[in-house]
Amino acid sequence: VAAAVVGIRVGVRHQTADSAKPIEGFPAPNFTLPDLRAKNISLKTVTAANKVTLINFWATWCGPCRAEIPDFVKLYGKYSSQGLTVLAVNVKEQPPTVKPFVQKMAMRFPVLIDSSGKVSDLYQIFSIPSTFVIDRKGTIRSIIKGSTRLSVLEAKVRPLLKGK
User: Fold this and answer.
1) Between the CA atoms of 75, 79, 81 and 84, what dihedral angle is there, to the nearest 10 degrees?
2) Which tens digit of pLDDT belongs to each residue from 72-118?
């Protein structure tokens, strides 16, 4: 565990030296991925629609990911009409594995497939779950490494929905 924490810390320290990597207070790197219907969705298009966006990196086999998904479902249900969206980026799995899980969990927000891991690499995802909170202008406002809870997500999202 200590080695994993040190590895994450080293990665975070290193990423501040390169502005192309995801850093709080800087623009989120754009990407385009297919959803479960093979329709390409880009972050740029979502933020251009003036949405507060949560990008959540996850996998069906990940216990902590599975545990937090109901909170993302609740959050989306509560705030999507106010301009919130969730982009659930599945890491290195294929649609036939992901689709039944998404249906079972009633995930109504876009679920994107990063089967090659290219976007996960772009966002320096060393462990999942990982969540990025993006404001309406496309700026990373918060990075959450590890699992999170509804109360934490609401505390980060509410001010952004109000334009703060």
Assistant:
1) -90
2) 999 999 999 999 999 999 999 999 999 999 999 999 999 999 999 99
Contact 9, 123 (CB under 8 A): no
Q: Work out the angle between the directed axes of helices 63-79 and 150-161 (0-180°, nearest 10).
A: 40
The pTM assigned to this predicted structure is 0.87
Helices (H), the chain: 2-15, 43-48, 63-79, 95-105, 118-122, 150-161
Asked if 94 contacts 113 with a C-beta cutoff of 8 angstroms, the reply is: yes
Structural domains in the chain? Answer: 2-161 (3.40.30.10)
Q: pLDDT tens digits, residue range 123-143?
A: 999 999 999 999 999 999 999
Instruction: Please measure the distance between the N-terminal and C-terminal CA atoms of the chain and give it in whole angstroms.
Output: 36
